[in-house]
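Please decode residue identities from the backbone states below.
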């Protein structure tokens, strides 16, 4: 996967075309109530990923140097929701406001991730993870790391958001 990269650090540029979102450095977030997954993604490669507390991620986002922030957005499907969903919504807003260019944040809905990566809105997390492995490559081992080495937990959902944002026109 290369050197350790934190969400707010700039891993450099690869000379990609600025007109193509797929060539841009994308920081994607899978928000949660207390901690969130994140993934740096550029030109089809995972640059860094992890899970951190929302407070720490918020602080990192203030110095965001990625070209794009893509964040998974909550959608209403008519079902009753609990405190956790509302708390996550609050954090989404806080993350967006911390980004240096809040009007340019890409909001990506889980339904769109499922449709883009799996072709069905009924896909489960395991289906999405397998689609990402098929698209980007295997994790590999510590001795021989693969393209998705180090991605774990909520960072998989963040990677799915990054890939969807890179390959589609997610709402800004």
């Amino acid at each position: 996967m290369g050197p350790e990269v934190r969400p707010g650090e700039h891993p450099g540029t690869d000379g990609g075309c600025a007109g193509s979102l797929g060539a841009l450095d994308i920081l994607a977030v899978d928000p949660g109530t207390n901690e969130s997954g994140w993934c740096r993604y550029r030109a089809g490669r995972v640059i860094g990923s992890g899970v951190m507390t929302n407070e720490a991620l918020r602080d990192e986002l203030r110095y965001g140097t990625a070209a794009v922030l893509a964040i998974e957005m909550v959608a209403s499907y008519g079902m009753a929701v609990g405190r956790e969903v509302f708390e996550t919504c609050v954090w989404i807003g806080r993350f967006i406001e911390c980004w240096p260019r809040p009007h340019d944040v890409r909001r990506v809905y889980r339904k769109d991730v499922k449709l883009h990566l799996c072709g069905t809105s009924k896909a489960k997390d395991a289906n999405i993870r397998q689609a990402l492995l098929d698209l980007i490559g295997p994790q590999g081992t510590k001795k021989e790391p693969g393209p998705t080495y180090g991605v774990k937990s909520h960072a998989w959902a963040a990677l799915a958001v990054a890939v969807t944002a890179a390959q589609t026109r997610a709402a800004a």
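Observation: Helices lie at 54-61, 83-98, 110-118, 125-136, 155-167.
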